[in-house]
Amino acid sequence: MIQAGNYSIKQLVIIGEKTYVNLSAVFTEINIFESIYSASLTGWVTVDDANNLISGSNPLPIMGNEAIVIEVSVGDHASQQAITKKDKTVKPTIKNIIFVGRVVDIKNRTMINERSQSYEIHFVSEEFVLDRNIRISKSFTDHNVDYIVEKVFSEFGLPDTYEFEKTVRNANVVIPNWTPLKTINWLASRAISAEYNTPTFFFFQTLYNDGPTSGDRSSYTKSRYTEITSNKFWFLSLDDMLAYPARKNIYFRPGNVGIDTAELDYQYANAYNYEVVNSFNTLTNNANGLYNSTLISHDITTKTWKKTVFNYDDKFDEFYHLEEFKMFPGLTDSKNNRFNSKNYKESLIIYNPTGTLENPNFTENISSIRSHRLASLDLFRVRITLPGDCTLESGDVVYFDLPSPETGGENKMDTYYRGNLLITHIRHTITKIQYSITLECCKETIAAEVK
Fold it and tell me: Residue 26: what are its φ and ψ, rounded to 5°?
């Protein structure tokens, strides 16, 4: 019988130059991490070892940079919605986890007894290792950022699956002996979406490969698809992530309350537990330019200064959001102002050059908006653990019925923070008995207006 959290290990091997070792019988836990803030998957395998695989007399001492292959099969279910901007629902194709990476470290080595030990084998994506040994010294003249990203990414020379959102405004760029990942992250901080006209790009890798580019994105992304591994690289704007409806509805219900929890699809959507990590921090939000900021830019050609003021209320309707209503800017202070008051336009001051007449960098259209949008992702964060679902990705939207811990019924939900959440981090955890995922999600708007 298939149960939520069930899985089977198809491969868990470390491959050396001449031989390999199978860890499927000796592992106790596998952890794989992904995040919209990280260009690489990372993780570790915890092993109880009675054969001294690290060194000893075995034919494969683990000395570093060995290949590691992880393949996990997960039961079929249909707890997700279709990834489409249109109002459709289809059952997604459930794929195995197929990850290939490199061993980079052994940590937390402890003796269980005199003949066995426990330790963690840490690994990263292949590209992260290659990145340390590739340097790029090139100039690109009059090209869009997405073109430069694609060219830089090709330096890895691997058949990776990727999806790169198209950008606007040609740029002249000189890459000063940087690594590929550093270069692409720098380009992400300066790219403007052709589809949404917003400067909120992220470059990241996810464990799930969701197949060839969907019809919705095919008109404004560049993509490549391969079935070799289950992971995928993204160069994507925040607005594109938020433009899609929730991929999954998540609940938190005791087994005997409200819903038939014996149904398999519901089991996959019913959280084991959750934790509110951050509700708000008014001082941090204010300092990070969430509500107001002033960009001071210097034009070296004309030797003049220019001030560009950003205000949360003025710009709110220009972006995609998870919910309809703005975050509450706090009560009025002793000067009768709220944090979103235009009197506080210099809460954050950003200094930037504008470039030259021949090569402008358009910072007046990037810096303040990007600072605001990044700050908005720290407004409200919640961590949810639920049965393993390898088809959820960082950058997906999920709907969470956040319970309200109050008297009067188990089915009362939080008025403001229930609803859509953006997944920023995922931790995949596989033990001997179950596969679970821990989602760290954020919310940059609220579900009801504060009156």
Answer: -115, -5
Secondary element (H or E) of residue 188: helix 180-188
Note the helical H segments in 94-179: 126-131, 145-153
Instruction: Return the axis-axis angle of helices 145-153 and 180-188, rounded to nearest 10°.
Output: 160
Q: For residues 375 and 197, what is the distance between their CA atoms, to the nearest angstrom? A: 19
What DSSP string runs through 368-389? HHHHHHHHHTTSEEEEEEEE--
CB atoms within 10 A of CB 339: 21
- Is-above-0.85 flag for pTM? yes
Asked whether the CA dihedral 296, 166, 130, 61 is positive or negative, the reply is positive
Q: Which of 330, 326, 312 is nearest to 448 (CA)?
A: 326
CA distances from 182 to 39, 135, 201, 301 (A): 9, 10, 14, 29
- Pairing of the two strands 304-311 and 232-237: unpaired
What are the pLDDT digits (tens) for 185-237? 999 988 999 999 999 999 999 998 777 776 678 788 888 888 777 789 999 99
Q: How far apart are CA 44 and CA 308, in angstroms?
A: 46
- Give the three-class secondary structure for 310: strand
C-alpha 13/C-alpha 206 separation (Å) is 21
